[in-house]
Sequence to fold (197 residues):
Amino acid sequence: MGKHRINGLILAGGLSTRMGTDKALLPIEGKPLLYRLVEQLSALTQHVIISVGSSEREALYRESLEERGGTVSFALDHAQGCGPLSGLHAGLSAAAEGYVFVMACDMPELSEELLAQLMAHIDSGADVIHADGQPFHALYHTRTATQIAAALDAQDYRVMRLLSRLHTLVVSPSGNGREIVATNLNTPDDYNKYIGK
Fold:
């Protein structure tokens, strides 16, 4: 499919509380999940940004990726402990102006097919173009960073509430996209089921 003229953003600043270990470093087919996502996203976007909660996390991920030759940049949360909105704000603020494909680091696969379906709507003028019910396999325009900052200032950390205030366009995934956006590795059970499939 080739590269799209957009950046990619992986949200990897979560605490992985339900998993009990850092989700981004879970091994899948001999590679840390984060490296696998960077590989997939690098093939489809101009540049990959990883949003991390802290400089300690950045150092850990940087070492893991450098061992495998991955080239990315990192964005540190400005507001600590505020959930994915904080990482979204940091990543969008660090990106070149335009749309950014955003995915969470607990989504083990990237659907090229769905990305193409989302990209078909970039002339719509929407702030966010996302899969039905899934805010993080989505295109966000960098201009939304202002509204996200306002939500963080108001301590309103709910992503779906943010989307309700933005101009969004919802795409219903077809083909393999529906299954992929429904796959999240939140718990050890989720992970065991995924690697055992």
The helical segments are 33-42, 55-66, 84-94, 112-119, 145-153, 159-165, 177-181, 188-195. The two ends are 26 Å apart (CA to CA). The chain has one domain: 7-195. The mean pLDDT is 86.
